[in-house]
Amino acid sequence: MTKPKLIVFDLDGTLVDSDSAQDWMYFLRKNSWPYSKEATEICSEIMQDYSSGRMNMKDYMQAWVLPIKGKRVTEIRALATEFAEQYIKPRIYTQGMRKVREHQKAGDILLVISASPTIIVEPIAALFGIQHVIGIDIEVSDSKITQNVIEPFSFGNGKVALLKLWQKQHGLEDLPLGCIYSDSINDVPLLDYALNSHVINGNEQMRSIAKENGWCTHEWSV
């Protein structure tokens, strides 16, 4: 019997044609949530540094939670499921779903690691039948969401650190990272960590890095 492999997928731009964190705020804004307009504007400005790898994730997340701060976790989880079904499901990359199914059929262990908040990543990962998720966690007090975000963030080198911690917590330290699929320049440390790396819909810079490192490149679409 073939030993299962650990397979990691980035989410936004890799499995779905979406920046789920940003689209969530547009979703809230469309539904007239208080502070959603202000949060969207602040986060959009901070996001301008994303492609350069210099984005301040702490500032981004503190703005991102403004519309949902003080809300009950159960309410936001239900809303996040609605968001995943209505906004994200139609944007799933066909080849991404196919690749997920291929690894699931092979008995591999699948994990989504995203720089988006866990509370919205979980219902999106569920659309693929993926139960293991690492995202950015928000502190909860008395069953309500606070404005405190928990570090380290699953962003840049933080993804590798959190992956290693996740492996330890699940008793999988001896299981190497077989494949990683990602579109992002911020995931180069994670791509370096994998035995087999795949760049999805990479921009010119990512395609150049992939060529230098011998990584596979793919173009996926909805």
Automatic annotation (TrEMBL):
CDD domains: HAD_PGPPase. The keyword Acyltransferase does not apply. Pfam families: HAD (PF12710). Gene3D superfamilies: HAD superfamily/HAD-like, SG protein - dephosphorylation function. One of its GO terms (molecular function) is metal ion binding. The keyword Hydrolase applies. Signal peptide: none annotated. InterPro entries: HAD-like_SerB, HAD-like_sf, HAD_hydro_SerB1, HAD_sf. Keywords: Hydrolase, Magnesium, Metal-binding. This is HAD-IB family hydrolase. It comes from Idiomarina rhizosphaerae.
